[in-house]
Amino acid sequence: MDSYQIKRFADLGLSSSYGAGFMPFNEVNGQIVTDYDKASKTLAQDAAMSTKVNVGVPAAFSTYIDPKVTTTLFAVTNATQLFSEARKGDWTTQYTQFPVEEQLGGVTAYSDFSSGVSSDVNYEFPTRENFVFETVIKYGMREAEMAAKAQLSYAGGKQNAAANIIARAHNRFYLQGVANKQNYGALNDPNLPAAMTPLTVNGKTTWADKMADPQNAGTIANVIYNDVTALVNKLIARNGGNVDQNSDFVLAVAPDRATYLTNPNQFGKTALELLKVNYPNLKIINLPELQTQAGSVLYLTVPSLLGEITAENAYSEKMRFLSIIPDLSSFKQKAVGGTYGCVIRRPSLIASMIGI
Questions:
Q1: What rounded mean pLDDT belongs to the chain?
Q2: Which of 15, 216, 254, 283 is 20 to 30 Å from 205 at the Cα level?
């Protein structure tokens, strides 16, 4: 850079003795004269300010972000393993009714002139109310692009979250129904028979107390087996010989009691093995909702008998995503579900035991 250019920059107010790209200078008699003495001192100062040798880099450049996203673990949703699902109407439907047929009548001694005893049929139409529910997802354009830099599918993740929340709501309503509506669950339908109490052994009723009792050492598997057998016998007694030990049973157990089924007796046999031998078509599932403040519950059912279902988890909308609505710099979307709870058609084929 020549002296004219330096002078021109100085006239424009850009002069600096220590400016980058400029050698220190003085103006003598209208001429630009380089100040070599000051320049040497400046270079010396630059050298004195040098940092120590290091290999440090920002932490972001030495951090590995695993592309595998880990989702939080929730309790299992096993209501549909207890009873199957069925769609009834859609989200515009308000009620569903299902006909129940009861055959009745009698016989008497034959006579050519009598007609006093007849056979007939009665019908009832129990009603269940459709409960439509929703959840909303929202995401901004900037936050979605920021998440993309971390290789995250932000909008897709929120849609998956909504789908999961809707599915968990269905599971809850299938089991517990909806308060203040004609909408009941498999665990609280008003037509269900009263729950049994466990068999008392040495004054103990819960499985934990029975197992801790030294008098039950070596026989705990038999004690637990006897409680389940009491439930089976209750179903057999209620259903006029239509249920026997070979029926297709489903036994739901609270997770905090499931491991008790694997405790062996003095012969090395567990309650689970004893049940499988005596009830070959028994299926056992874990149902977290059976852990209640009143105690853990056993729930036994025959899901279908003679070609007719015992109960079904009824829904009007499994999941419906509505339109994506754009705002100034964000989006929102609603997800909708609809349920009638669990429609129990044959309550006599369900038995429960509370306080195990």
A1: 87
A2: 283
Instruction: Give the separation between CA 94 and CA 131, rounded to whole angstroms.
Output: 8
236-262 pLDDT tens trace: 999 999 999 999 999 999 999 999 999
298, containing H or E segment: strand 295-301
AA identity, residue 356: I
Residue with tokens 């030294």: 214
213: Cβ–Cβ under 8 A, 6 or more apart, which residues? 201, 202, 204
DSSP notation for 242-263: S--TTS--EEEE-HHHHGGGG-
- Written as six digits, the tokens of 192 are 């269900």
Q: For residue 112, report the phi and psi dihedrals to the nearest 5 degrees.
A: -60, -20
Both tokens of residue 81?
């393993």
Q: Are 261 and 294 in contact (CB under 8 A)?
A: no
Q: What is the CA radius of gyration of the chain?
A: 39
